[in-house]
Amino acid sequence: MLRSRRKLLLLLPMTTLAGALALASCSSLPPLGQRQASTAQLDTDDTVLGQAALAQMARHPGLAGIHPLVDGHDAFAARALLAGAAQRTLDVQYYIWRQDTTGALLFDALRRAADRGVRVRLLLDDNNSGGLDAVLARLDAHPSVEVRLFNPSANRRLRVLGLLTDFARLNRRMHNKSFTADNQVTIVGGRNIGDEYFGAASDVSFADLDVMAIGPVVKAVSDDFDRYWNSASAYPASLLLERGQEAPAEPDKAAAAEYLDAVRRSEFIEQLVRGTLPFEWGRTRLVSDDPAKVMGKAAKDAQVMHKLTALLGKPERSLDLVSPYFVPGKDGAEAFAAMARGGAAVRILTNSLEATDVAAVHAGYAGWRKPLLEAGVSLYELRREWVQEPRDKRAGAFGSSAASLHAKTFAVDGERIFVGSFNVDQRSFHLNTEMGLVIDSPALARRLSETLDQNMPQRAYEVRLDKSGKMIWVERQHEKVLVYEEEPGTSWWKRATVRVLSWLPIEWLL
């Protein structure tokens, strides 16, 4: 009797899991036959944003005006102000959108724009939309708003089980990030929507980078949005989400008021009001993956890595690269090593183990450090905690009080710079869709290089090889130099966990 009961107790969870898996496998996505195609509006030159952009573009024909958004408050303000100024359209595309203070404020900004009659198209990757179904359903119910979910889970309640039964598809994600108003101004870069990206989180903050752009490249971003919006992986929220769900609790209004008060003091807003917001002008090209990449059907020459290689070429003098998740793989490591051996000064900044928010990615990176160092590549790893004067604009890609690096940018030969969503890792290479801007601007390329020159010695560990060929980490604290023989700021357990993860055949997932 006791043996039978034990057997039943063992079989019960197995049977439950099998039943759940069967239920999940039976779920399927709805057909898209009734979905309406839509495209960006072209007749927007007469809008407030259009007139402002045209006045500047007339002095720089054929070029794009680029304004870097380094500070988190500025990055939030730019999006909120574009939503407030839009008169015709808002096309918004993101990988993550949190229902926190800044996420709720920007949802409200979209809703208020729709109330003015602005057509709002919101395209979100479905991987991180868990818990947002009620919010998105309410937003989608607005007559001027349409929400679409990219590569969605068919089963809204059993997402994890859906991942188990449809892993090959759901493992591929849309990592793109853009915010375009009236087809006249766009924001492209590394930031998702959430407190940690906009300097509103108390526990963690990402050092990130976007650019705000005007000029011909905006039309390219709009066309690319249309390509994703009308792709076979973009599902109208109305086909997936139940109406009438109980909405989650609103974020703390006091916290929102405090944050908005801080944003109002942003230098970005002051410059915008005075009409003195500076732009760097240069030829700018959009690079973006074919949305069919998430279905494993994109041709190699339609992928961002191929396009970047074609546009940027092989660095002859220098490469300054910032990538929070750096898993180059064999081919990538050999390419960087060849650049260094060929005489180019190659500097790479990524997260240290103590700073990364994804330990598994560090496991995929760690094994490539020594061969890169042996080839002459300079490696730096951002420290988790460092002190900086508040709102210091000189921090460049480091942000203002960052605990973890999230910016994705690199400068080639001091002449061209990339800013976007693309990480130098296997997910960006092969699995996720990515986008970004290649900007011909010695001024912006020089700014990145100078930022690294000024900030890395005090804010990042330099990874070196000692005389015996063993890796060491060098930390500079003003006049003092500290040398570590193992990953600084980490426990034995964390290092052991990363070591075990590095033995697993998971690099292709990273």
Task: Report the uncertain regions.
Answer: 1-24, 387-396, 398-402
End-to-end Cα distance, whole Å, is 49 Å
Mean pLDDT: 88
Share of residues in helices: 25-40%
Tally of individual helices: 17
Give the assembly state of these chains.
single chain
- CATH topology name of the largest domain: Endonuclease, Chain A
Q: Please name the CATH architecture of the largest domain.
A: 2-Layer Sandwich
Overall geometry:
globular
Q: What's the total number of strands?
A: 21
Report the top-level CATH class of the largest domain.
Answer: Alpha Beta
**Radius of gyration of CA atoms, rounded to a whole number:** 24 Å
The major beta sheet can be summarized as: 10 strands, mixed
Structural class, judged by helices and strands?
alpha+beta
Spatial sequence of strands, sheet with the most strands: 11-18-17-16-12-13-14-19-20-21
Q: Tell me the strand percentage band.
A: 15-25%
Please tell me about this protein's structure.
This protein is of the alpha+beta class. The protein has 2 domains: 39-280, Endonuclease, Chain A (2-Layer Sandwich); 286-509, Endonuclease, Chain A (2-Layer Sandwich). Helix content is 37%, strand content 20%. It is built from 17 helices and 21 strands. It has helices at 2-26, 48-57, 72-85, 101-115, 133-140, 159-165, 167-170, 217-229, 253-264, 267-274, 304-312, 329-341, 359-366, 369-375, 426-431, 442-459, 492-503; strands spanning 64-69, 89-94, 119-125, 145-150, 178-181, 185-189, 206-207, 210-214, 234-236, 280-282, 284-288, 318-322, 345-351, 378-382, 404-405, 409-412, 416-420, 435-440, 460-465, 471-477, 480-484. The strands form 3 sheets. A 10-stranded mixed beta sheet has the order 11-18-17-16-12-13-14-19-20-21, sandwiched between helices. Strand 19 (460-465) and strand 20 (471-477) form a beta hairpin. The longest helix has 25 residues, at 2-26. The protein is globular, with a radius of gyration of 24 Å.
